[in-house]
Every structure is written in structure tokens, then in C-alpha cells.
Amino acid sequence: MINSPTVGQPIQLAEGLVSVLAPNASPMTYWGTNSYILGENSLCVIDPGPNDPNHRSALLAAIGTRHVSHILVTHSHLDHSPLARPLSQDTGAPVLAYGNSFAGRSPVMDELAATGLMGGGEGVDAEFEPDICLSDGEIIAGDGWDLHAIHTPGHFGNHLSFLWNDDAFTGDHLMGWATSLVSPPDGDLTDFMESCRKLAQFPIKRGYCGHGAPIENVRARLEDIIAHRNGRESEILAALAKGAQSPASLTSRIYTDIAPALLPMAERNVLAHLVDLFGRKLVACEGPLSAHANFFRTEA
Predict the structure, then answer these.
(1) β partners of residue 278
(2) Alpha carbon distances (Å) from 147 to 35, 44, 127, 162, 167
(3) Which residue has the higher pLDDT, 100 or 2?
(4) With the CA atoms of 184, 297, 252 and 249 taken in that order, what torsion angle do they form, in degrees rounded to the nearest 10?
(5) Cα–Cα dist 50/183, whole Å
(6) Which of 7, 3, 78, 10 is nearest to 45 (CA)?
(7) pLDDT score, position 1
(8) Strands lying side by side in the sheet with 132-133
(9) For the ranges 27-36, 103-112, 256-265, which has the lowest average pLDDT?
(10) What's CA 59's distance to the chain center, in Å?
């Protein structure tokens, strides 16, 4: 069992890299959000975190008198992005991200959102707006460091991962302590699986994630996540072989070993799988695609 770092205390992770833990521990965020400070003289802050005055003070104390040239946001959930604008005002650094909280959302998720389905989980920073939008593959050059932006939608449409030498900042796409929540319409499992395969093409060694300890073997963790999702898909298809069911009934049938309070999040994951299976024509539903439809298999 790895002990949690102390909230607000800078932790040296590698040469030129420290993390500062935000005071927002929860079942969804584990110890809290990891904010990263990259560089020695001119700095980059990755994922400033929630708009908490104590975390703001802790980051400014860790920065000290050094210049901040960039503020990067992996994605705009409320536990990652709200402090970006206040920190930008403190330091004068621009905020860089893939786009606002609707950027990168797939057409099918736009359709679901239009039906009134709202996101669940960490909550969306609806007011988030970067100063500079980054494209997939773009290089961010700093003082003594370079980052390679990789668009990795799935957990969230505007999610970016950042390659740094042989390592990567993986945000909430890839974490060691838990599988990422994929909650439609903000999360898209089809995109999530494609992003896993995309990251696996890079020779990444260590992963610095949004919550929890660094991932020491990124390739093995990606393989685990893909296998986990494939296993969950098999469970859903097996359950649907017994007849049409709603996401809620599938969740109660499949998730028999989790706390009742976590069942709503589990149902979101089941819905994400069903939307993916629907897009691949492996399941269909009675009536329009929705979170409350009954789904059934289209093949034996």
C-alpha cells in the first residue's frame, strides 16, 4: 500500500518535476488531484486543479519567484481545470488545452446530450476556455523541456495527454489506482479504447496521472485496461443473451460486489459500453438511443 503524499507539499518525482496534491480527496479523486510543476527556471504547470484557495497558495509557494511560461490542462473536469484562470492571473502565463468543455465530443454524444442526458462523476467546468487551443501532435516548447500533446478523448472529449521524453502525463485517461470513469455524454467508450491503442504506439515508460501514484509500467497498464473493458463487454453481451435489459438492470446484474453508493457511476460505465456496442451494431435498443432504453443483442 503506497501512502498518500501530504496535501500541499511539493514532492520531487524526477529531475525538473514536482507534484503538489490538492485537498480534494474523494471516492472519485482518490488522494486528490495531482498538480505538476515541470521545469527548473521557467515553469509549466499541468492541471492546476480545483479552485481552492489553499491549493492556489501551495502552488504559488512551490513556484516561488520563478517564471511560469505555460499552464496546461489535460481536461476540464472540475477537479482539474478551475484553478487555471486564477493561476494565470497570478503568473501571467497563458492557459493551453485542446478546447472548451464541448471540444472533441463525438457526434453520437452530441445527440445524447441533446436528449437531455447530462454528465456524471467529477462534474464539468462549463466556463472553461483556454487562451490557446492545442491540436493533436502539437509540440509545446519550454525552457529545458518539450511536451508532445496527444488528443486522447474517451474519459472526456477534450482530454489531452502530454509526452515528456520517455514518460507521459496521462491525466485521467490512464491511472494506476482505478480504471477511468467513462460517463456519457462527456465520456465516450469508443473514443476511450481508440485512445488506449493510440497511446500504446508510443514507447512510454512512466505515467504521471491525475490521481494516485505514478504508473511505473504504462504499456502493461494499458493492456490491463483494454482487457478489463473487453471483459466487461463480454459480461454485458452475456447478460443480454438472456433478453432485453436497461442499463440499470444490467448494472445490478453485473456489479454485485460494489457499494450501493457507487452503482450510479457503474451504470454510467454500462451505458458507455452499450453506446459503443450500439455503434458497432452488436446491440440495438427499443426506441431511440437513450440512457433508459432497453437494449438487446443483434447477433447470437
Answers:
(1) none
(2) 16, 10, 26, 6, 10
(3) 100
(4) 80
(5) 20
(6) 10
(7) 45
(8) 11-14, 17-21, 34-38, 42-46, 67-72, 95-97, 132-133
(9) 256-265
(10) 22
